[in-house]
Amino acid sequence: MTEPAYDLVIRKGRVATVSDVFEADIAIAGEVIVAIGRDLPAGKREIDARGKLVLPGGVDSHAHIEQLSAAGIINADTFQSGTTSAAFGGTTTVISFAAQHVGMALPQVLEDYHALAAKGAVIDYAFHMIIADPTPETLQNDIPALVKQGHSSIKIFMTYDRLKIDDEPLLDVLVAARESGALLCAHAENHGIISWMVKRLLSRGYTQPKYHAISHARFSEAEAFNRLIGMASLIDQPIMIYHVSTAEGAKVIRDARGQGLKVFAETCPQYLFLTAEDLDKPGAEGAKWMCSPPPRHASDHEALWQSLALGDLQTISSDHAPYRFDETGKLRASGNPNFKQIANGLPGLETRLPLLFDAMVSKGRLGLQKFVDLTATAPAKIYNLHPRKGSIAIGADADIAIWDPDREVTLTDAAMHDLAGYTPYAGRTLRGWPVTVLSRGRVIVENGTSLAVAGSGRFLARCGGDAAIPTGRLVADMDPARNFGATLL
Ligand code: DUC
Ligand code: ZN
Ligand code: ZN
């Protein structure tokens, strides 16, 4: 008897990519997809996908895992728990952060996060480098060397006392990113407005979590976007603006893209499904919904959906940043903290795709192919992981999520696999669930059980790719032909 041609065949599912939806068998040999067709020869193992959707595994390009955060504490998850929760939610690639804090040497930071991820991750991963201390060593030596090692995106914060950098060092980082071919990602909010608002609110006794939302005044987002975009256009450096939360912020991005600037942007489920009202709970309970920027209003949800439809926003990430609702996390300062003492962030690696599938596919908002694009293909392209990740294609890694479009699941705290101990979406019933998940051809989630081995995820080295390439259009100030011959770049 001859050996089966393939290791695994997923049979008769409805396959969806950004460009097509069709019924097909998918054959996998080793770690990659090797054939897509009808009535393919048998595999050593077969999965019957009739009635199911066969989608590329999700790519979550913004998640804080086992990271020393802006609050000065480590997030609740390990790489094992965080990536396991991602897999349960249909995500098979994650880009998390290697976070430099002030005084830290960037190469050591990368080494430390590599060690943590190599030990625990169950899905493939890459890192964005958080730069909080742009010393000459970091800018001139470390960033170029580390980008060459495959860390081709840099993140900066424009707010948060521990991590923020001001305009002048930000210009230096933009230049370092440009010269090394990296994408510059940013948490862009106006620090002065926020800290001024915080002081006024606290001094007047407005201390509950709901006032966190007030302290991040809406304009702090649009102002910082404008300033960042201005600086990036001065340097001609492509940027990614993280977690857009307001209609005004989305408009700033639309205008910048309309001028041909290379500005990419994401939003997150918390800005599409939660509002500031969610923080209005008795006592400290609202802390469970506290993130930055804060959830806003239903009218912002509509504006963001519109921006997603128009392509102003290209990706939806989780911004997973889990803290337990106890003395190790949200209540670390006290059982009755003021809002400034509460760590910012929500768990979301596991719920990102089911929330979006329910809204986009089951309820029909923007549809299946746009769901695939925003959650897998577009982030893979922007962060230069495509075509290996983010699509179903011959030669791609066999990272696949098989969805039962009819399965209804009510989210509960107890059902989550991360270590936050709660989900901000508890009680919501969603239609559509990833029932079988594969990472490089291995089944890692099946029948509600994890089969993944800690440390089986691999580091994905990335060079910058198209998204990180400058436009080549210099503004007058930077252009020797128009600035009396001065050479600034
Ligand atoms: N805000 C961030 O900027 N990062 C992590 C979580 C959060 O709420
Ligand atoms: Zn952020
Ligand atoms: Zn974040």
**Helix share, percent:** 25-40%
Task: Write down how many β-strands occur, each being a DSSP E stretch of 2 or more residues.
Answer: 17
State the order of secondary-structure elements, H for helix, E for strand. EEEEEEHEHEHEHEHHHEHEHHEHHEEEE
Give the strand content. Answer: 15-25%
The value of Rg in angstroms is 22 Å
Q: What is the name of the CATH architecture of the domain at 58-379 and 461-468?
A: Alpha-Beta Barrel
Find the CATH superfamily of the domain at 58-379 and 461-468: Metal-dependent hydrolases
Can you identify the CATH class of the domain at 58-379 and 461-468? Alpha Beta
Q: Mean of the pLDDT scores?
A: 98
Which parts are unreliable, with pLDDT below 50 for 5 consecutive residues or more?
none
Largest sheet: 9 strands, mixed
The CATH topology of the domain at 58-379 and 461-468 is TIM Barrel
Which hetero compounds are present in the coordinates? dihydropyrimidine-2,4(1H,3H)-dione, zinc ion
End-to-end gap: 66 Å
Summing up helix and strand content along with how strands pair, one would put the structural category as alpha/beta
Q: Identify the overall geometry.
A: globular
Number of helices: 12
InterPro entries: Amidohydro-rel, Hydantoinase/dihydroPyrase, Metal-dep_hydrolase_composite, Metal_Hydrolase, Metallo-dep_Hydrolases_sf
Protein name: Dihydropyrimidinase
Organism: Rhodopseudomonas rhenobacensis
EC number: 3.5.2.2
